């Protein structure tokens, strides 16, 4: 018997080929695509506008959802949910859903899912739980897309998850944003990540706009340049964490291969080609990268660039010596940047009580 085909791994064209090979008319691919990405179906039996024989064949020869939830946690305020999923080969990944119910009239409520691109990560950043475990493998496009669909289903229909967890807010809620900021380095799994992003952007299905999609990278120059040539103009975030090579090398080991000047040159090209504002992520670690002198050095590095700095209070990882900056030091760091004309935001701390920092739940549960 041949292996079943994971449907979420297919592009629209590949799905059309599969169904054409089964003797189906062309419009069936659009119908199946709509079931998968518009209606968020997980079972061909429910695809009621398809002939029964086709539903049976899909059930016998394909699979849909590759994610088996094995653990779920909700933060004390109910606004952050984290799932640990087992993949068909036993690898585990994390996905985090964040609710932002801002009460300011100008702010819209957001529902953001943070998805993983790899099981583990080879980059070894010293403050990151995922980095400590090393890389197991790349995720497939379907495994990446499936995380988005799972969160969207959870928001749409109140359903009981593991540990009796019920979705916290209201039913018929919609996912508004996707950030590729979970486990793994997305530009080290470029093809599959981009196929997944094209799938969720596709208007005939999930139809999530490019401005609602953000990819975060440790800073791989070739990947950044390649992104600049993509027709889809998503948001780019680069994890900087230090303004000079001596310090960044200690925190982000890949900096010895791609020093800051190379990363900044690639980002400069990206901005020149896309005219899009780039975000730099900077995790503030007490006594490490949070001094006023480093804030000034960072301001000098970024002066004149179409960018924005996202200051992140470090999520402490067990057995790691790194600690978050005090709020006074963080505020002082931010004030220096702002004073020198660099736009900043301070990310609100999310789900700290549920190990929501990337890789932390998987690490704590020993699922590697
Ligand atoms: N590999 C990519 C995307 C995944 S990590 C990257 O490095 O950008 C997503 C973000 O979380 C990165 O900015 C990363 O530096 C940050 N991060 C990792 N561990 C963290 C921790 N313990 N506390 C705060 N931010 C962390
Ligand atoms: Fe990998 Fe990003 Fe973690 Fe660094 S911070 S180890 S690149 S997941």
Topology (elements, then pairings):
Blueprint: E1 5-6, H1 12-21, H2 27-38, H3 52-61, E2 62-63, E3 68-74, E4 80-86, E5 92-100, E6 110-114, E7 118-120, H4 129-133, E8 135-138, H5 141-156, E9 177-180, H6 190-201, E10 213-217, H7 221-228, E11 235-239, H8 245-251, H9 260-274, E12 278-284, H10 292-302, E13 307-313, H11 327-339, E14 344-346, H12 360-364
Parallel strand pairs: 1-2, 6-9, 9-10, 10-11, 11-12, 12-13, 13-14
Antiparallel strand pairs: 3-4, 4-5, 5-6, 7-8
Helix pairs in contact: 1-2, 5-6, 7-9, 10-11
Describe the structure.
This protein is α/β, with parallel strands linked by helices and 368 residues long. It folds into two domains: 5-63, DNA polymerase, domain 1 (Orthogonal Bundle); 68-364, TIM Barrel. The protein has twelve helices and 14 strands. It has helices at 12-21, 27-38, 52-61, 129-133, 141-156, 190-201, 221-228, 245-251, 260-274, 292-302, 327-339, 360-364, and strands spanning 5-6, 62-63, 68-74, 80-86, 92-100, 110-114, 118-120, 135-138, 177-180, 213-217, 235-239, 278-284, 307-313, 344-346. The strands form three sheets. The chain has a ten-stranded mixed β-sheet with strand order 3-4-5-6-9-10-11-12-13-14, with helices on one face. Strands 1-2 form a two-stranded parallel sheet. A two-stranded antiparallel sheet has the order 7-8. Strand 3 (68-74) and strand 4 form a beta hairpin. The longest helix has 16 residues, at 141-156. The mean pLDDT is 91. The structure holds S-adenosyl-L-homocysteine (SAH) and iron/sulfur cluster. The site of S-adenosyl-L-homocysteine has 17 residues, from strand 10 and strand 12.
